[in-house]
Amino acid sequence: MKGADYVLKRLAFAVLTVFIAVTINFALFRLAPGSAVTNLARVPHATPETRLALKRQFGLDKSKFEQYVIYLQQLAHGNLGLSFANSQPVSHNLRTALINTIPMVFLGTLFAIVLGTLTGIVSAWRRGTLTEGATVTTALGFYSMPTHWLGLMLVILFAGVLPTGGMSNEFLINPSFWTHVEDLGKHIFLPALTLGLVLFGEYTLIVRSAMLETLGEDYVLTARAKGLKPWAILRRHALRNALLPISTLVALSLGYIVAGAILIETVFSWPGIGRAVYDAVLQRDYPMLQGAFLVLTVSVVLFNLVADLLYFKLDPRITE
Amino acid sequence: MSVAAREPGVVIEQVPIRSRRGLVWQTIRKRPSALLGATVLLAVLLAALLAPVLAPYDPHEQVGPVFGHPSWSHPLGLDDGGIDMVSLLMWGARVSLLVGFAATFVSMVIGGTIGLTAGYFGGRTDTVLMRITDYFLVIPDVPLMIVVAAIWGPSLFHIIIVIGILLWTSTARVLRAQVKSVRERVYVKRARALGAGHTRIVFRHVLPQVAPLLIANTVLTIAVAIFDETALAFLGLGDPSRISLGKVIENAFQRAAISTGAWWAIVPPGVLVATIILACSLVGGAIEDALNPRLRVAHLAARTFKLRPLVGRGPEAV
Prior knowledge:
The complex is a heterodimer of chains A (320) and B (318). Chain A has 320 residues and is mostly helical. Helix content of chain A is 76%, strand content 0%. Chain A has helices at 2-30, 36-40, 48-57, 64-76, 90-125, 130-144, 147-158, 177-215, 218-225, 230-252, 254-267, 273-283, 286-314. In chain A, helix 5 (90-125) runs antiparallel to helix 6 (130-144), helix 5 packs across helix 8 (177-215) and helix 5 (90-125) packs across helix 12. The longest helix of chain A is centred in the middle third of the chain and has 39 residues, at 177-215. Chain B is built from 15 helices and no strands. The two termini of chain B are 14 Å apart. Chains A and B meet through helix 1, helix 6, helix 7, helix 8 and helix 9 of A and helix 6, helix 7, helix 11, helix 12 and helix 14 of B.
């Protein structure tokens, strides 16, 4: 019974967070003085009639509350407005962008989780040795680098060897399936590696400190006193328990992945959601910016929910 | 260790965490990595503060060819406007550090107030404040910063405020947890019994106890704030009239420093940002580690299972 309670609570929290994000989204763009939409009706030399017509067209003559209700209704229908830049529905632009972003972010994150977890475990296990020093220094180094700068460094290193921009070679005419895949793989390598390296630093540090905490627990001492082999202690006693905080912290780093994607896609001209944010900022394409922010927030909230539920599954002690 | 702590009346209590006065300083002095971090941080801070005196050239004046190579007179070369990179970095660090410190100050005021209030008063206040913090924790900061900065328009003040009002969540949570435990200590109860008001208890008895944690958190937040400024500047949302390190990187990227082969225009600013962030992480991390009793109780060296010597590790050893 308590389990169902927990799941329901987390679900309610996620729904409420999305709702708050939607409200912030509305407020930021409509309530801020002199904000984007208000500016639309400020055409130079416009007659009062023109202004009124413009205001009516964008629904600005209604009260803020009515505007909010209309915004929610439209949102419920999946209508995010039209992009200023290309007059396409924002939802359509975002869908294309999201499809491009997902494989890149997935590969990078996977790389970081695998390598970061392994390095973190080794680092904690060999505490006080040269290995620990080396791994921690490397991890801290990658963690400290500005994401976009690391991307630029990889561009300098790999320029000429690998493509440093875009998603595919536009000069390939009617490529066969495998040529296309190979081309995509070459293009995805650097952006995914950049994300992977930045996250690798963070994950190594997280896993290391989680492992150090569990290695200090009394049950590890007990396991040692029982004469268990170090490997068994590491795997069955320390690592299993360390996985709990690791899973939460990895979930919390999702916001960071989103930020990283924006910077990385800008560096590598990857036509994903991050690049969409950058272009929207440059062109002051507010409907796009608003839509992209919403999609990013909702995805982070969703993944957090998944992590919460996973945590609940992993740790039966949670009944909060 | 303060003199007051040796007076019998105070010692009897057996406060689980010993006198924390000077702990920050001791931690920095004892750990080579923290000492290194603090030294680097101090050096960068000095170079930035003394930029008007130390910088060899004017950061707005063309003193040589565009993307001029490094030479004896310009050790790090020249940028896209023929400006000396060394001078540019010193002035850039000034703005970046200003943003870092000011945004962190804003975030500390918000996070500190919320953490202290929630932890000290508990109950419904705590629930409401922590619920708000939870929501802020989930909403991704950088996209929100981008949206707000894009709407407000690029200025240094806006950037500081935007970063400050989105970074306080971890401070609030960390502080609240610590305050909650300090609040239950006997000496706080005793002070209350003696008639001390909330203000006095918080500022005389609670705040000094959580101060090292606050300092660690401040140093770590400075790193994040500087990182965020670099990111915002890179996306074209930096103050166009101020050169920050983020702006220097953005300029080099936009003006094709890479395809020109002018690595000196783009590598050093990033290295400097990374160095500042690394130094902050080393200092902040060391203080946090020293405060974390669970790490200190790590009685086994993991690999060899040798018992760690617990005596002689200074006052922070339990």
